[in-house]
Design a protein that fits this description.
single chain, 516 residues, alpha+beta, four-stranded mixed β-sheet
C-alpha cells in the first residue's frame, strides 16, 4: 500500500513540474473540502487546523516560507538583521490595503503584536525575547530583542503571527468583536459568506498587492460531515481539492487511483504534525507520573500506525518530531507492554477511579483511534469513560482544563523554540487557551533548558540543551505522544500550482490556477 502511495507522490511531482512550464489561466472557482467545520475564522484567536487552512488565505503574515523553510517575502518585502542578532528591521510593501480599503501600515503590525500577546498562545511564547517594536515610518518595523533568539525569522508565518486591522480591533473586546464573524485581512481572498454546515465562500481580492494574483475567482470550502460523502464528492467531481486530513486515511489509496487525481505529501514541511494525548497533570489519576507512564506502555501505537493510519505515520519517541531541528531518539522508550502498564498502575495505587477520555472530533479515523486506545486502557485496568464533543466543545473543555485524557495533534514549526517549548514551559500555562501548556506540567529544569536553548549559540549548544529537555520530558510523560502524522493532499490534476510553500494549502490558493 505504501509503495502505491509513494508512486502516486512521484507522479504528482511530475505534474507539478509541468505546471511551472505552463502559462497560468485566469478565472474559475475551486471547490475544496474543509474538515471539520472550523469553530471560527478569526486567526488571531483560533488556531485549529481547519481555521488556519481557510483563514490563511484571508489573512497574511510578514513572511512566507519555502518547502525548505527559508523565509520568503510576504507583507514585508525585505528584512535585515543587526550584527549582534538583536535587531530585525522589516521593510513593508507599499500600497497594501485591507479588504475594506484602509491602508495597511506599520501601525497595524505594532497593534497586531500587542493583540497576539493576549490572544495567541504560540505567539506569546515566540515573542518572549521581544523588548520593543519601533515604527519610524509607515513602511518600517524594527523589532528589538533582549537577547539573540535563533529562530526569530521563523515566527512570521500567517498562522503564527497573522496581521490584524488596528482600525477594527483597537479599543474593543477582542473575543466579542463583531468583525470576528466577517474576517478582514490583506490576503488574496476576501470573506464572502459562511452558511453553517454547508460551505464557506471566499472571493478574489481585486486589489491584492501581488500584481496579477490570485488567478482564480474564488474558493468554495465545502463542509461535508460524512466521511464517505467527502470521498464521493471528489470521485464525482463535486470537489477539486481534498486537503491533508480531510478524508479518512483508509480512503487515500483508493482516491489516489481516481482518474485525473494527483496526490502529494508536500506542503506540511513547516508543520510536521505530531499527535498525542493531553494528560491532566493537575488532578485525578493522570496527575501521577506512574499513571502517565502506564498509559504510554498501555497504548499500542504500532497498531494505530499500521491499521488505523494505513502506515501513513511514524511512532513518536517524544515531544519533538524527527523532522525538526535538534531531535533525538536517545530517550526512555515505551514499547507496547500491557504487563508493565499494569505493574505501574499498581505501584501508583490506582483504585479504578473513572478516567475521562475525549477523542478528537475530526472524523472517523480519530474516532476509531479513540476506541482503540480506550480498549488498550481498559485491558490494563483503567476505568474509562468516553466523552463525545464537537470541535468548539473540545476546545472549551481542553482550554478550561476539564478533561483527563484528550486527543490532539499540534504543529512543530521547524524549531523546538517555536513549536515544542510552548506545550511544556510553565510560563505558557494560561486557562482558556487550547494549544499551550494545557496539561499543567511544570518543571523548572525544563523551563531553564528551553529558555537557554532558544538563545544559545552555536547550534551545537542548542542541540545539547534540547536533547536534555527531551530526555526529561519523556521520563515525566506530561502528555502521551502517539504518532508523527502524514497528511497527503489529493487534487484534481487540472488544479495547478496549489502547493508552493511549506504550509501548502493554507496559503497556496493565491498561486493556484485551473487548467480549463
Amino acid at each position: 500500500m505504501l509503495k502505491a502511495i509513494s508512486l502516486s507522490l512521484l507522479l504528482s511531482c511530475s505534474f507539478g513540474a509541468t505546471a511551472w512550464a505552463q502559462e497560468p489561466k485566469m478565472g474559475g472557482w475551486i471547490n475544496a473540502v474543509i474538515q471539520p467545520e472550523p469553530p471560527g475564522l478569526m486567526l488571531a484567536q483560533i488556531q485549529n487546523g481547519p481555521t488556519q487552512m481557510v483563514s490563511g488565505n484571508i489573512y497574511e503574515g510578514l513572511l512566507r516560507y519555502s518547502k525548505t523553510l527559508e523565509p520568503l517575502p510576504g507583507l514585508a518585502e525585505s528584512w535585515s538583521v543587526s550584527d549582534d542578532a538583536k535587531t530585525y528591521t522589516f521593510k513593508l510593501k507599499s500600497g497594501v490595503t485591507w479588504h475594506d480599503g484602509k491602508p495597511f501600515t506599520s501601525a497595524d503590525v505594532l497593534f497586531s503584536i500587542e493583540m497576539l500577546k493576549q490572544t495567541h498562545g504560540r505567539a506569546r511564547t515566540n515573542l518572549v525575547q521581544l523588548d520593543k517594536v519601533e515604527t519610524p515610518d509607515d513602511t518600517t518595523v524594527v523589532f528589538k530583542l533582549t537577547q539573540p533568539f535563533g529562530p526569530f525569522l521563523g515566527i512570521f508565518e500567517v498562522g503564527s503571527m497573522p496581521m490584524v486591522p488596528k482600525h477594527l480591533y483597537e479599543g474593543t473586546d477582542y473575543k466579542t468583536n463583531p468583525n470576528n464573524n466577517t474576517p478582514i485581512g490583506t490576503g488574496p481572498f476576501m470573506f464572502k459568506e459562511w452558511k453553517k454546515g454547508s460551505f464557506i465562500q471566499l472571493v478574489k481580492n481585486p486589489n491584492y498587492h501581488v500584481k496579477g494574483k490570485p488567478y482564480i475567482d474564488g474558493i468554495y470550502w465545502q463542509i461535508i460531515p460524512d466521511a464517505a460523502a467527502r470521498s464521493v464528492a471528489f470521485e464525482t467531481g463535486k470537489v477539486d481539492v481534498l486537503p491533508g486530513g480531510s478524508v479518512e486515511n483508509f480512503d487515500v489509496p483508493r482516491l489516489s487511483k481516481v482518474k485525473g487525481a494527483c496526490i502529494t505529501g508536500e506542503g506540511w514541511e513547516f508543520f510536521s504534525p505530531l499527535a498525542w494525548m493531553w494528560l491532566n497533570n493537575r488532578a485525578g489519576p493522570t496527575a501521577n507520573k506512574k499513571v502517565r507512564q502506564a498509559i504510554m506502555y498501555a497504548v499500542d501505537r504500532e497498531f494505530a500506525k499500521d491499521v488505523i493510519w494505513n502506515g501513513l505515520g511514524k511512532v513518536a519517541t517524544g515531544p519533538s518530531a524527527s523532522t525538526i531541528k535538534f531531535y533525538t531518539d536517545d530517550v526512555p522508550k515505551y514499547p507496547f507492554d500491557p504487563a508493565k502498564a499494569k505493574a505501574l498502575l499498581k505501584e501508583a495505587g490506582y483504585k479504578g477511579e473513572k478516567v475521562r477520555l475525549m477523542p478528537l472530533p475530526y472524523g472517523e479515523t480519530w474516532q476509531r483511534w479513540g476506541e482503540a486506545v480506550k480498549q488498550n486502557l481498559i485491558d490494563v485496568g483503567f476505568n474509562i469513560e468516553t466523552i463525545a464533543t464537537d470541535v468548539p466543545g473540545s476546545n472549551q473543555k481542553i482550554g478550561d482544563w476539564d478533561y483527563d485524557i484528550a486527543f490532539t495533534y499540534l504543529y512543530q514549526y521547524g524549531d523546538p523554540a517555536l513549536g515544542v517549548a510552548r506545550n511544556y514551559i510553565s510560563s505558557n500555562i494560561a486557562k482558556g487557551q487550547v494549544f499551550n501548556n494545557v496539561e499543567g506540567y511544570s518543571n523548572p529544569e525544563v523551563d531553564r533548558l528551553f529558555a537557554e536553548g532558544a538563545n544559545a549559540t552555536p547550534d551545537s549548544k542548542r542541540k545539547e540543551l534540547y536533547e536534555k529537555a527531551q530526555k526529561i520530558l519523556v521520563e515525566d510523560v506530561p502528555v502521551a505522544w502517539l504518532l508523527e502524522l502524514q497528511f497527503p493532499t489529493i487534487t484534481n490534476c487540472k488544479i495547478k500550482n496549489l502547493i508552493t510553500t511549506g504550509i501548502g494549502v493554507n496559503d497556496g490558493f493565491r498561486d493556484a490556477w485551473i487548467d480549463k
